[in-house]
Amino acid sequence: GNMENHQKAQAIRPWINPEERVTVDFEDERGLNAEVRGCNEELVDLALETAVPHLRQEVSVPLGRIEIGEDVGKYTRDPDQPLRYGRLRLIVHQRRPEVL
């Protein structure tokens, strides 16, 4: 689907929640857990889980490089919200940035 950036931002913004995780697929690494830290009409700010516990990789990805999908194998985790099966999946048409 060819969504406009503002539609993508509207789909992503409800997931800005430190209690929640989304799934991120890069071209070279798939199925990553990430926290959405912020989103505007241009960029989404993600904190990707790394091989090191509690170390997050902060990346900003242009919305134009992202497709919105759903990860039906995962469910929401915020205890204050109703449980929902299926969570946001971001398909990123670029390679994962290097972990510095």
Keywords:
100 residues, six-stranded mixed β-sheet, 6 strands, 44% strand
Q: Helical amount among residues, as a percent range?
A: under 10%
- Which of globular, elongated, flat, extended, rod-shaped describes the shape? globular
What fraction strand? Answer: 35-45%
Strand order in the sheet with the most strands:
4-3-2-1-6-5
Terminus-to-terminus distance: 33 Å
- The stretches of 5 or more residues where confidence is low (pLDDT under 50) are none
Look at the structure and give the mean pLDDT.
94
Q: Could you give the order of the helices and strands?
A: HEEEEEE
Q: How many DSSP helices?
A: 1
In terms of structural class, how would the helical and strand content be classed?
Answer: mainly beta
Find the count of extended strands (DSSP E, 2+ residues). Answer: 6
Sketch the major β-sheet: 6 strands, mixed
Gyration radius, to the nearest Å? 13 Å
